[in-house]
Amino acid sequence: MHILIINGPNLNLLGTREPEIYGSATLRDLESDWVRHAQDRGSSIDTFQSNHEGAIIDAIHGARGVADGIVINPGAYTHTSRAIPDAIAGVGIPTVEVHLSDIMNREPWRAISHVAEVSLTTIHGRGATGYLNAIDALVAHTIAPATLHHYGEEDHQVADVRVPEGIEAPPVAVLIHGGYWRSYWKRDTLDLMAAALVKEGMATVNLEYAVGGDSYPAAIEDVEAALAWVTSHGDELGLDGSDIRLVGHSAGGYVALKVAERSADLTRVVAIAPVTDIDAVPGQFGEGDPASAFLGGTEAERPDDWSSARLVGTPQSPVVIVHGSEDTDVPDAHARWYVERAEDAVHFEDIEGSEHFAPIDPTTEAGAIVVGHITA
Ligand code: CA2
């Protein structure tokens, strides 16, 4: 596919000031990463930057018949412009909005995005990685577009459902994204994996769930509610709700393993680079560590929650753990910690040389191995 990447006002200054908010790479540095990333996915890109609203609108109009997708960081026009979202809606080209910084947790006026209303998703707070995730979300949308469903009444209890064409009642992979339970990591990180699974004839349900601090046990309960919803809506969705493979990456791998310790109903659980030993997390991150944030306090402050949150290594459903040997985000000691406890109840695959994100990228060897474990 061909993607137009548009950057708005002041983004030409990237790399010159405020590196603590916007990073130290220049726009040109970022562009070369986008080209490489798109190429790896059989796609190509054009780039455009302007400090002028009208010029950005002209670029969006010019993408008609040229680009199959748009990635846009509209800069501060995000918060003020009605004309830019009108242009995006007007051309009808699938669009993903990106912001380098976590606009939801800065000045309140930055939390307002009019462009979000016309975007497939809005990615923020992930720095330069956000642009790569945006490319992936567009590629996945082109391979297998999703339908949004609510599995519960709360705003975050949503799921993207994809069902392969021409297959009656396919098995389903329920996907739980990672991101150390931080609010700016969302389900789009598993879109490309979902699209690859659909190509292999599986249905996918890519979940949002409670994250963002003090979200235990809500995160686990959300996934259990989603599983119950998949089982009871299988016919309506056109999938086999009795053949569920629960897949979690990173912090989502922890959630998947926790559910596996409480449910015998899953065909298989595939935990990819999972966080398993929550007691190891404070030591890795120091003050403000993500496990304490997830549990609403440190072990000393919330001993009961920590105690009930610990994994014990007694899954009731079959478990596969896949972990890269070179993972520095979640060291593979986490996988080994779980395998030591669960022993024969777990099939462990250590992927030599792989880092944290390769196993959820189906274009890599590690990703292909994961797809194999989910579809087996
Ligand atoms: O986080 C983002 O990507 C933003 O779109 C960046 C915009 C800001 O107005 C939005 O609220 C969020 C501004 C970019 C300013 O970029 C600079 C970069 C280096 C030095 C000075 C400004």
Descriptive notes:
This protein is α/β, with parallel strands linked by helices and 376 residues long. It has 2 domains: 2-138, Rossmann fold (3-Layer(aba) Sandwich); 145-375, Rossmann fold (3-Layer(aba) Sandwich). It is 35% helix and 18% strand. It is built from 15 helices and 13 strands. The strands form 2 sheets. It has an 8-stranded mixed sheet, with helices on both faces. Strands 2-1-3-4-5 form a 5-stranded parallel sheet, with helices on both faces. The longest helix has 15 residues, at 129-143. The radius of gyration is 21 Å and the shape is globular. It starts with a strand and ends with a helix. The mean pLDDT is 97. Bound molecules: ligand CA2.
Blueprint of the fold:
Blueprint: E1 2-7, H1 19-22, H2 27-40, E2 44-49, H3 53-62, E3 69-73, H4 77-80, H5 83-91, E4 95-99, E5 121-124, H6 129-143, E6 147-150, E7 158-162, E8 172-176, H7 191-199, E9 203-207, H8 218-232, H9 234-237, E10 244-249, H10 251-260, E11 268-272, H11 281-285, H12 290-294, H13 303-309, E12 319-324, H14 333-342, E13 346-351, H15 365-375
Helix pairs in contact: 2-6, 3-5, 6-7, 8-10
